[in-house]
Amino acid sequence: IFLKEKLEWQNEKIEELQKERDFLRGQLSALTVKTKKETMDKPVSVSDSETSETSLSSSSLSSSSSSTPKKRKHKSKKKHSKGAKKHKKVYKKFRQRVQTPSEIVCRYKSVLKALPKAKTMTRAFQKHTVDRNTVVSTSAIAEVAIAAPEVYEEALAKRPQGETVLAFAKRCEAAIQGDEEIKDKIESMKAGGTLLPIRRSKPVK
Length: 205
Description:
Layout: H1 2-41, H2 48-95, H3 101-118, H4 121-127, H5 132-147, H6 149-157, H7 165-177, H8 180-192
């Protein structure tokens, strides 16, 4: 009898514990659902400091993007102005009337240097804003100066005071025509690209 009563008491105790367990499980489940719902419904708040930082960052980006084109525009304008001044300076230099044989030689060499890139003499003349006929009419001076510098220096030393550059060019042309060696050398240099391929149809008058 004692064992039977003890067994019944244990069974009752087990049933009570199971009921208590089920109750606690229900409470825990309800609490979990409530917590999830509150988390989803609660609005996300942003602190004043975070809002201020975001606003400042946006403002900085806007200011940077708006100022960049201005800087580029200013830089481009400055570069264009500098290029225009340089072109004007070169234009003025070569548009001035040359007055000495040395200036004629210098101008001739500048055109000669520009020829490989310009491809044609016409473009080389345009690059230095000089008239073709002007270069051709005095080209004998530069040809003698480059191909036969000793002859050039001798002719320069004998140049009368007040002699024009055209008159000096005529003497240089006569020196070329009177010396087959110089004449052949000049023709060879023209063929090799070390002199301008100028063909004078008649002697300079």
